[in-house]
Each structure stands twice: as C-alpha cells, then as structure tokens.
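re: that complex we talked abt at group meeting.

here r the seqs, copy pasted straight from the sheet so there may be weird spacing, ignore it
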Amino acid sequence: MALPAYATAPQRLWHYTYLGICAVVLFFLVMPLIAVIPLSFSTSPFLHFTPEFLRLEPDAFSLRWYRQMIGDCSDPGITTVCSDRWKDGAWNSLRIGIAATILATTLGILCALGLSRPHMPFRKGIMALMISPLIVPLIITASGLFFAFAKWQLVSTFTGMILAHTVLGLPFVVITVTATLVGFDTNLMKAAASLGGTPVRSFFKVQLPLITPGVISGALFAFITSFDEVVIVLFIGGQNQITLPRQMWSGIRQEISPIILAVATILVILSILLLTTIELLRRRSERLRGVSPG
Amino acid sequence: MATLENTAPGALLTVDGTPLKVSLARSLRRSKLRGALLVLPAMLFLIIIFVIPIAQLLSRSVDDTLVNRALPRTFVAFESWNRQSLPAEAMFEAIFLDITTGEKYTVGKATTRMNYEKPGWRSLIKKSGRKFKKKIKGPPYRDAMIKIDKRWGDVTFWQTLGAMKDPQTLGYFLNAVDRQYDVNKHVIMKEKERRVYVMLWWRTLLLSLIVTVGCLAMAYPVAHLLATLPLRYSNLLMICVLMPFWTSLLVRIVAWMVMLQNNGVVNSTLVWTGILDDEDRLSMMYNFTGTVIVMIQILLPFMILPIYSVMKTIPPSYMRAAQNLGAPPSLAFLKVYLPQTLPGVGAGVILVFIVAIGYYITPELVGGKDGQLIGNMIAYHMQKSLNWGLAAAMGTLLLAAILLLYWVYDRIVGIDNMRMN
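got the structure back, here u go
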C-alpha cells in the first residue's frame, strides 16, 4: 500500500489524509481501553485523573483497588463497600462459563457433524434455527427465559444459568465447526472405517484432531459470551447467581468505585494476552505449514 | 427387504443379492437418519430452552383471558348494553357479584390489567371490594354502588370494558404504538400526554441509523488499510480492531465513562489545550450523544470485519487496470472498487443495524434520559411496571423487524457464509 513514486501532490495529500483517518479510527477503538489502565492504580476514589496523579506524585499511586477487589479489606482509607463479592463473582462466572462451554461444544459438534453430511434434509432451516439465538435481542431472550424458568423453578439456580448460557454459546460452536468441516476430507473417515475403526473411534482418532482449531475457536467464543453476559443474569440470576459482569453492572449503577477499573484492567490485559497467544499460534502453524507471513 | 424374485433380470446386484438401487436408497436413508440423530440433541435443546420460552412470551402480547375469567358476568351483561348511557341495574348486579364472589387474587390481577385501559379502575375496585360486603346487603345495587364511589356513575369507566371483552386482544400492540380502543373497539390515538412509544420507536430507529452510518464511515477506510497492507503489519493493526471486540462490554462502557464524563479525559484535554473554557465542558455522557459514541465503538468491529473479508478477495490489479485504462483514481474507485465491496458493506450494515436496534445495556448505563431505547422500555415493563403484555407486544414488534432484516441479510450474504474468524 505504499505510494507509487509517480504520485502527484494531491494524491500524496489524499494518501496521508487517508492514513490519518485510519489512525484516528484505530485510536478511537483502542484509546478508552488504554486510558483505564493507569487510572486503576490511582489512590483517588474518583474515576478521573487527579492533578497529583498527573504530576506523578508517588502518593497518588497505589494498589488499593486491586486489594479490595480480591477481598482484602485491611486498607484504612476504604470509602466504598469492600467484600468478597468480586472474587465470588469471578469464580461463579468461571464455573458457569466452563460448564456452559462444555455443554454447548458437545451439542454444537454433534449438530455440525449432522449438518455437514451430504444428504442432510432441511439443512438451511436447521442452520437458521441454530443461529437464531445470535439474532434475537438478548432482552427478548432474557424475558422469555424469565417466564419459562420461573415455571420450571430454574430462576436463581446454577443449572438455569448454565442452560441459558449454553443457548447463547451454541451458535458460535455450530458456525465455526461447520465452517471447519467444509475443508475436511471425508475420505479420511472412509479410510478409518476400512481399517476397522468404529464410527465413534474414527471420530475421536481421526476427525476430531483435524477439526480441533474450529472446535477451539467456537468454544472460545462460547466461553467469552458466557463470561461477558449480563442481560440474562439480570433477569434470571435472582439473588444467588452473582457473576462478574453482574457485579460490574451494579458497580457501575450504584457505587461507582475504582475497583471496577482494577477489574477492567485485568480483563483488558487478559484479552491482550489471549489475542497475542492466538496470533503467535497462528504464525507458528503457518510456519509449520511452510507459509511465511507477509 | 427385496428378494431375488421381484428383481428385474439384468439389474445390478450387491454382494448379498439386493438390487443396487434398493441398497443405495437404504444407505441414503440410513445416512439421513444418522444426520438427523446427530442434529437432534442440539435442536431439541434449542426448541425447549429457547424457542418455546420466546413463543410463550410473544403469546402474552395478545392474551387477555385474565379479565374475562375475573369478571365473567359483567362481560355477558356488557353485550346487551347500548354503550352510551349509564348501564342498567343488571350490569351493576353482574359486576357486584363478580367482585364480591370472585377469587381475590384473580380480581386483583385483573384490576391491574383494567388500569392500563383507564387509570382509576384498580383503586375503584379495591375500594369497592372492601365496602360492598359491609354496606350493600341486597338489590337494588345501582344507586348503592354509586353512593359508595361516584366513579360507578361515570360512563367512561364502563365504556373501557369494551376494549377488554375478548379473550384475545390487540390492545397491547396498540398501546405499543400509542393507540387504544374506544368503546366500540375502534382504534383511536391515545391522549396527547400519554403518547410516548412512537417517539421511542423513532428514536431507536434514528439511533440505529446514526450508529450504522457512523460505523460504516469509520470502518471503510480501516478495512481497506487492513486489506491492502502487507500481512505482517495488518496483523498488528488487526489486534487493535479485535482487542475491543474481545474485551468485556462492561469494561468498554466503564472505559468510556472515564473518557467522556464531565471531568473525563476528553473534556480535561480540551480544557487543558485551551480549546474549551472550563465552564463549558461538553456533556457527552448520560445522553443521546454518549449512547451514539459508545455504541459506535462497540459495534465498529462488526462492521470492519465483514468489509475487510470482502476487500481481501479483491485483487489489487483491478484498480491498476482501471487506472491504466485512463480512469483517475477517484473514478476507478467509484466504478471498480466500490461495487465489489458492496456485499461486505451490506453484510456489515445489516449486522450492525440488527444489533443496534435491540440494544439494552449501553443505553441503560450511559443513555441517561434521552438515550433510552425500545429495549430499555421492554426491560422497564418486564421488571418495574410488570406490564408483561405490553413488554411482550413491544418485543414482538422488535423481533418482527429484526427477522425481516435477518431475511434480507440472508438474501445478501447467506447465513451459511457467516464467519467468525
């Protein structure tokens, strides 16, 4: 995308304007996330940069919000509610997320295998049904589940949360695994069968290892969706199911305390690590396949 | 099982003697069955935990059986009333008996419903329920009831029963678009000061449009840059696009609060650089502007990614060829490049619009008063006012709009082409 040597002056001008616009947009995307990080180390109980902080006075920096986040309430200057709720919420989110991901991945792989068969009837209709949880607004899903779960005594239960989050994660697994299966050579399964493998055994020994990338990315999407989900938990979480997003929600609505910045920083850093890992893995697999990037 | 006798001579047979055609058909059937069995668990799961609950929610939008169950005699008497003058003794007797003999819980629920038609019904029936038994021993009821509460003599109260007499109603849908039934079940506009929802629908539509256009304007150049840079650099920039995508929604909202609030980063920077005076800091949070800014940032990746994936497939030689044939760069872009990117643009636009129109979290947290959307109104009627019929009606309208867009989306890109990575 370099400018050719024969570019005229207006072309040059336009080119740099264009690069400038791109820079502004990328800045707009990333800037707020970056701004959160330093502020989480501030001593001040407000969500803005204090003059002391900007002058880099050592007193203006502390880890107090991180300590309060993990439930350490020994800080004498505590002005906000300090409790184990953040820690408990994180654990609860993790447990619900993992359970929902396992359930969604299992159901999703089976479904994708069925959909990828050459003679599957009603393929399009089933696919549309599978994707529908992504299309229906969460507020409608949450309202529907609220009435149904109230009838089935699932409101405010762990099981209810897992079932609801499985619904949201299922489309991602079905989409990614179906997409991966398009490139799968079915002759391999025939070869496995001719060598005496039962369908189940050949699936685990031959097919699953080959479609693992798709499965992992689907599972990752399902997990992130569950881990980040707040509307459904607000409707059906009741008193018992406090997840991390729900805790953040009440953190934003009621007691705007910088603990939320500490949590945000950790989540931003986690997502950077995650992306870097994916990118490195991608480069590695490309290298192994003998394709060099760029 | 086909046998050798009914097989035409000369037909191809498999090893066990079955005609090939039969054998193939059988294996095809078995393959289909296997496919169905694989799909079945996920389908059943979705139908039970997703489709049925939503269908039941939507059915609430037309359900009006409650009032009919609570006041059966009244609605029978209603049929023979002329609907203009005050009803006759028979109707007073009917409602008296319904209120005094009916199950208290059912009547209580029904009065909430009646209050939607005309505020005052609930307090009227509650008060009457207490006093009827004590003060009225027997017929005639009419004058005794009016003596207990003047409102029984008000014909407008009686007239609202007309809107509720059928077990199915479109009343909630009418309410969702600021209309109501009159006594003869004709549709009329609500009183001026009670009209709120049409404005809200327009606002939701307007905000979704602004967000979509904003996203498109910002996404197009970035997607182009990402698609044309060498992979080594574009991957780095891609991380900038994907990082917000992967970061928790609530974290991004908190981040924007830090940026946009009155003494947030943006305002402080503007004041510090002297562009703004300290007194007239921009208010960009808890209003319409705030919702737009935050939603654009949140939905931008949904626009960039589909456009990028289409641009990636356009060979750069096309633009060079166009310029080689004498087109100035701008014309080459308009005539050659832009039309080829339209599928990606269409996909991104519809995707962003669908997500934006049903948004709830962001407007709730940063919208303040004039940034509230339909989604927030549904949540309000679900959780606070408990007018579930109205919430269901609004949800049905919203869902219908979204399914229409989804159908268009399917036409343009096909749901099979939805890619996540």
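couple things i noticed - Residues 156 and 238 of chain A are 4 Å apart (CA to CA). Chain A touches chain B through 94 residues (CB under 8 Å).
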